[in-house]
Amino acid sequence: MADFFIDLFNMSITASYLVLAVVVARLLLKKAPKWVSCLLWGLVGIRLVCPISFESALSLIPNSQTIKVNDFSQGRPFAVESGIPVVDTNVNELISSNYYEGITVPVNTFANVTDVLSVIWLVGVFSMLVYGLISYIRLRKNVSASVCDTKNKNVYFCDDIDTPFILGVFKPKIYIPSGLTAEQVEYIIMHERAHLKRRDHFWKPIAFILLSVYWFNPVIWSAYVLLCRDIESACDEKVIKNMLNHEKKHYSETLVS
């Protein structure tokens, strides 16, 4: 398990470089269609899933093995190889000066620490997934008394929710708060159906699962937040693409309200 955690940690570091590159690309591509940003986040997702890295002089990833595990018999069972010389030199000199198993630290210290970190990581993953499951169950309970719209398929009105959303992955349903005007309902349905056409109800749970696995990396949290924003922007862009100016105004007012 410790070896798996180290490999996962290294994948997290290499993915962080890609996240930073995507953040820069988003700034440079402000005028590009928003789905482009979503596509870039898809590359980050592939990086988080795929254990294979391609290193080259042109690569965005300096080194795919930031924490390199050495032979434990050497006394120094790990070294840092980030691919950034100034970082590697200073950190490894510090390790060499203060870390030598059996002399400056007890034997098997590295193995014991990585075992503890692995357990903490597993607890974190379990907690995130349980939180997601409980949130889903609560939503299901809140919409249990919803009423189906006779005019629109898979659209339900509910008194116990404050904001519209899609619930379900394989059989998604649109839930809308009661008491809205007919115009607001029309725009909300357009918005939520755009999400369905883009398969956002499928991609966002996958993104949350990846976040649960890499919960220890704050860069991945930032990527998740930006992804959710880009998904909403891409959805709005899809909805207003063929709208007239006054329709865009009313649609925007609906989003604000």
Features:
6 strands; 257 residues; 4-stranded mixed beta sheet; alpha+beta
Report on the structure:
This protein is α+β, with helices and mostly antiparallel strands and 257 residues long. Helix content is 61%, strand content 8%. It has helices spanning 2-28, 34-49, 85-98, 109-142, 182-197, 200-213, 218-240, 245-256, and strands at 67-69, 78-80, 147-148, 155-158, 165-167, 173-177. Helix 1 (2-28) packs across helix 4 (109-142), helix 2 (34-49) packs antiparallel against helix 7 and helix 4 (109-142) runs antiparallel to helix 6 (200-213). It is elongated and about 70 Å long.
Category from helices, strands and their pairing: alpha+beta
Tell me the overall shape.
elongated
Uncertain stretches:
none
Radius of gyration: 24 Å
Report the sheet with the most strands, covering strand number, pairing sense and barrel closure: 4 strands, mixed
Element-by-element helix/strand order: HHEEHHEEEEHHHH
Portion of residues in beta strands equals 5-15%
Number of helices: 8
Strand order of the largest sheet: 3-4-6-5
What is the residue-mean pLDDT, rounded to a whole number?
83
Distance between the termini: 49 Å
- In percent, how helical is the residue content? 55-70%
By DSSP, the count of extended strands is 6
